[in-house]
Design a protein that fits this description.
The chain is of the alpha/beta class. It has a single domain, classed as Glycosidases (TIM Barrel), CATH 3.20.20.80. It is built from 15 helices and 17 strands. The strands form 5 sheets. It has an 8-stranded parallel beta barrel, surrounded by 5 helices. Strands 10-12-13 form a 3-stranded mixed beta sheet. A two-stranded antiparallel sheet has the order 2-3. Helix 2 packs parallel to helix 4 and helix 5 runs parallel beside helix 7. It starts with a strand and ends in a 9-residue tail after the last helix. This is Glycoside hydrolase family 1. It holds the Pfam family Glyco_hydro_1. One of its GO terms (molecular function) is hydrolase activity, hydrolyzing O-glycosyl compounds. InterPro entries: GH (IPR017853), Glyco_hydro_1 (IPR001360), Glycosyl_Hydrolase_39 (IPR051923). It comes from Sphingomonas lenta.
């Protein structure tokens, strides 16, 4: 699955007084038809995209679907598969932030309403980058609640991951053969000196917390104590163990040059640059969860030479092929995003209006060098990879196929499997899939 994405981050900053809306500042609301045409021209059939949550979800049970109706209908007409991103770093004003304990159940209903309205949509990322969302919002103090303690971080994390799990359950009730592609940041923390080994070990355990909880994997004893010491209850922890939906998931992982960190003796961190790279870090994550993998985000600025982004694309693709050739089932690759972005050089903490030249196209919708390179890469590799013996087939139903007999049978068989699962696991029966 060769993919790109529409950047739809919507965190709030300045103690909640201002919202950063990437689709607005990048011109998507006015130029979405043109952008979808660019996706087609690239030869891309998979697009990470979701409705603007703060404009769509107006109140409990109240929605404005107008923009979603026209954009998703157009994707269906073009036979582009959306990987639907329902929550990308922000929530509507009326919810507040990720400290709100009502958020998971409210989001469950929102996801269910979306899935029922668009029954042809099969691929979902309910909550994007759960770990980064919790860290930036509730540990670094950058977004939303702007928390800076372990307790605010754990509170945000448990609410975000529970929302993701409940959303998966709700979507499966509407679309039993739904596939969930977790777009999660793949991180690593390097000790700068011997005194930094212990804090680096702790950070390297914390990086797995979102996916451990999401996939119902027992955390290690140190992380269990950390969670309970910072506000998670035993009952909340067991919710995740009792609601394992891992069999419906692909482990999407994101990798940027900023994903590896140097750790100092006091536990503070700084950038290390690329040390291990995508191949080694993906191996660590795959060995932990044993799921098919999709590379769901990467990019690089088009620098002064004009070749920096193209060189990074080549390097990431070489890493993807190595991951695949060493036996890890990897099913897709993504350059994120379709167009340049705004103010990610300061992690959206300020509204400076600075263009970040890292899209396949610039904001005037002129193709960049990396766009031409990605288009050629897709053309070269699309027909080669499926012929290799190690290819993994994902049962994706293209939009134009959703009413065909085999697609209907696939959904019926998936629904029957879910019914058996409910009977076998009584805890899933209470509103579960």
């Amino acid at each position: 699955m060769f993919a790109t994405g529409i950047e739809n981050s919507v965190p709030r900053i300045r103690n909640g007084r201002e919202r950063v809306d990437q689709m607005e500042v990048c011109g998507f609301y006015e130029r979405w038809e043109e952008d979808f045409t660019l996706v087609e021209e690239m030869g891309i059939h998979y697009l990470r995209y979701g409705p603007p949550i703060h404009k769509t979800w107006l109140a409990p049970g109240k929605y404005d679907w107008k923009f979603s109706d026209v954009t998703f209908a157009d994707l269906k007409r073009r036979n582009i598969v959306p990987i639907t991103d329902l929550c990308h770093f922000g929530v509507p004003d009326w919810i507040g932030d990720f400290q709100n304990p009502d958020f998971p159940e409210l989001f469950e209903r929102y996801a269910g309403e979306f899935a029922r309205r668009y029954p042809w949509v099969q691929l979902y990322t309910p909550v994007n980058e759960m770990f980064i969302c919790a860290v930036f919002s509730a540990k670094y103090g950058w977004w939303n609640e702007q928390g800076t303690t372990d307790r605010t971080f754990v509170t945000a994390l448990k609410h975000i991951v529970k929302a993701n799990v409940l959303a998966m359950r709700a979507i499966l009730r509407a679309r039993p053969d739904a596939i969930f592609i977790q777009s999660e940041s793949s991180e690593y923390f390097h000790a700068e000196n011997p005194a930094a080994i212990k804090p680096a070990e702790i950070l390297n355990s914390q990086r797995f917390l979102s996916l451990d909880l999401n996939y119902g994997r027992r955390v290690d004893s140190e992380m269990y104590e950390y969670l309970l010491d910072n506000g998670m209850t035993r009952e909340e922890y067991h919710f995740f163990l009792d609601n394992r939906l891992k069999q419906h998931c692909i482990m999407g992982n994101d990798y940027y040059v900023t994903n590896e960190h140097r750790v100092r003796a006091d536990g503070s961190t700084g950038p290390s640059g690329e040390v291990f790279g995508y191949d080694e870090i993906t191996r660590q994550y795959h060995e932990r969860y044993l799921l098919p993998v999709m590379h769901t985000e990467t990019n690089m600025w088009e620098g002064p030479l004009g070749t920096e982004a193209v060189d990074w694309l080549w390097k990431e693709w070489a890493n993807v092929l190595r991951v695949r050739n060493t036996g890890t089932p990897i099913v897709g690759f993504t350059w994120y995003s379709l167009t340049d972005q705004i103010d990610w050089d300061v992690a959206l903490r300020e509204k400076n209006g600075r263009v970040n030249p890292l899209g396949l196209y610039d904001l005037d919708r002129n193709i960049r060098a990396v766009g031409r390179a990605y288009k050629q890469l897709i053309k070269d590799w699309r027909d080669v990879l499926p012929t290799m013996s190690s290819a993994l087939t994902v049962p994706v139903v293209m939009p134009h196929e959703c009413d065909e007999d085999w697609a209907v049978r696939q959904r019926e068989h998936a629904a029957e499997r879910l019914r058996h699962k409910i009977k076998a696991e009584p805890s899933m029966a209470d509103g579960g899939a």
